[in-house]
Design a protein that fits this description.
The chain has five domains: about 5-55 and about 155-270, 3-Layer(aba) Sandwich (Rossmann fold); about 65-150; about 290-460, 3-Layer(aba) Sandwich (Rossmann fold); about 515-690, Rossmann fold (3-Layer(aba) Sandwich), CATH 3.40.50; about 700-845, 3-Layer(aba) Sandwich (Rossmann fold). With about 850 residues, the protein is of the alpha/beta class. α11 (about 315-320) links the parallel β9 and β10 (about 330-335).
Amino acid sequence: MTHVLMMVGNTIAHDTRVLKSALALADGGMQVTLLGASPTDFRQDTWMQDVRLIRVPVPYRLRDRRLRRVARRGERRLELGVSPENARLVEVEAQQRIRERNDLGGRDRELRARWALARRRIVRLRNDLDARVAEVETDLLESANDWWNSQDFGVSWRRDLPEVDDLDLAFTPVIDRVDWDILHAHDIHHVGTAARAVARRRAAGGTGAWIYDAHEYVAGLPVYPPRTPRSNAAWLDLEKEFARDADAIITVTAPLAEELRRAYDLPVTPTVVMNAPVFSEHLQEDEPGIRAACGLPEETPLVVYSGGVTRARGVHTVVEALPSMPGVHLAVVCVPHNRTRPVLALRDLAESLGVEDRLHLLDPVAPESVSSFLASADLGVHPMLHFGSHEFALPNKLFEYLHAGLPLAVSDCRALAQFVRGNDVGAVFTAEDPVSCAAAIRDVLDRREALALRIAEDPGLLEPYSWNHQAASLRGLYRHLLGPEAVPVEPTAETSLRDVTEHYVTRDDRPSLLGIGAVNAAGQGWAWAKALEREIPGTATFVLAVDRDGSYTFPADEVVPFSVFRENQRWSAAFRDTISATWTHALLEAGRSIIGRRYGADFVTDAAALRAQGIRVGLVLHGSEIRDPRANAARTPYSPFADPGDELTARLQLERDQLAPKIAEFIEAQHGPVFVSTPDLLADVPGAVWLPLAVEVERWAAEPTAFDAEIPVVLHAPSRARLKGSDAADVVCERLADAGLIAYRRLGGQDATSMPDQVRGADIVIDQLAIGMHGVAAVEGMASGRVVLAHITDENRALLPDCPVIEANPETLEDVLRGLLADREAGRRAARAGQEYVREVHDGRRSVAVLAEHLHLHG
């Protein structure tokens, strides 16, 4: 299959010409990849129907270096005054000498005062002179800069347009890795990149061709900031160097095709593929239109402009014409949005003319909905100013207006005027002349019904300008390059942008490698990972953990010190590259970043970056980071968070409140499923999925406790030493130990590798007594066949059918322990049931089933 690689120097998303061209070739049976600039600092890899889109970050290092040099050239070189600090000190000293003279008198003090006043006068004169010189110097520098930018002698795209090299540096690695047959360079930015890529391919013994898609008349680009005559000349220098090397050239209008052939002495006239919309047979009349958006009745005359708003587009001309057209309203559908500087300038202009109530500045609608949205207006206007490129332009909006049934009022730019007059679809006015513009609009409004009828009754008016017609021309050019028998073929139907959406590439074509991190809370990341490798042969995992204080002991594939994770960009970049090269899935833990500071230590940004590279993403929350202290206090009377003034409660509440919006953002962006490790958290994270805690059963296995020792061992290893239940356990167990009824072991800061032996050496394990749900320690205790005590609310018990954890809370703990000492058989039954429960719920099989279902894991 012939593979086309299209390049464009923007983010692709709003470039309908590029998107439609790609779909047109894909419809013809070609493999198409679009290469553009990423709007983020990470690569994005997506699909749109059968078209692959790759967006790469473009670090504009060379351009920014040039801008810094230009800024330095504009800095002042001559300084005559003194610094503000020194001037202030001279002033202070003068006042001091004057006070001395006034207070004490004397000739010496008089002389010192006069000298201080003279120094002050000199400083003031110097600073005044410096201000005058600075003003002149600034004017000279600005004039010199303006003069330089207005000249084209000595212009060179290599020197004046370093951004071209920035784009080349970003795009070339992808171009050289993709196995393409034809490079299609959209617009002027990539002609050099395409020419060099084909030359490299041919020098290596391969074949390849490239097409230059000339979107504009480069020799006549409009001049408005940041464009200058010099930068435009540099773009022309780039086109002159490479245009003749192209195997074919495409452009947007017939007059421009002829001009390019003449300017570059081309052997073949470039193929015309116009910026035409896709026309549907029927407009979407059931959707609100522009008149409704403006809140105007049917009888109010409404003129519409739809498109980009810059000075060169001339929309200000129509605003300036409004005072001459009482009752007429102007709606501007602003691309990309209605908050850009030129749009705000239009608003200010309307206010100064007293017509702000008749100007409506609207955000754009989807490209496929434009004509339907505009259909309720009375006419469409395009007031372009006279620039060389504008003389050859027939913008897409003209045909969108006509498809909406709107007659036209356009400026007298050459191609615009010829089209409107030749097809009798409106009126022409003098560009940037408000009086002429108002006269043309009034003329069209007077003839509105007749012109609309003429547009509606001429079925052939729009057909040559439809995208179907243009797509056929594009495919015809490719057949000419590749041979008449080659693809693309003519499809039976064109794919419309309306019918397609972008979706991320996934790496489902290979065995899953799941990365988990960077918390590995209580070793759960490792437990889930090992369970996955056991249950789904062929899968692989990688567990990352951050060591915050040098005491981390849970198993992980990599343990990185917090200082390195937080500050070391080299480590972060290397780890990012490892992820990009090997991972297929990622499970982000506890609302923490997994890639360090590379993307701002933000797990939502990390998720976006991973998804953009085809890595499926999930988020797992363990407890304290998302448990709502206020809700927990309402659920159980033993909540450790009942006192909102408590320091720990306040801190956890703050952390939770800061994290909750990020989790909502993750869910809103549909980055992936959200899991919680205990079912009580489902109330704190609506829509989450329970991912059961897991233990390696063999590691914790032991004979169930015989529970027959005269003094049984009670073990308690609280996760947070300050929690209310932990204090209660200490008080009760120490009292019973003092009475010789139990041996009490309270663990803290224990090495994780020794925990199985510690648990096996106990008879009873006490877990959480306050928050209303058991934790990892309970599962580990049950796996070892110990009697486990914890406080689990009735609501949470309902989520854990047959859970054999014995209920105990701060108020009942002593009674529960005394009861077990009196009824040893009840304890032995609970211990045996606990092992069975863990093998059923927490041995990793259920956890793997949940992960596999929601993350699409496979071997």
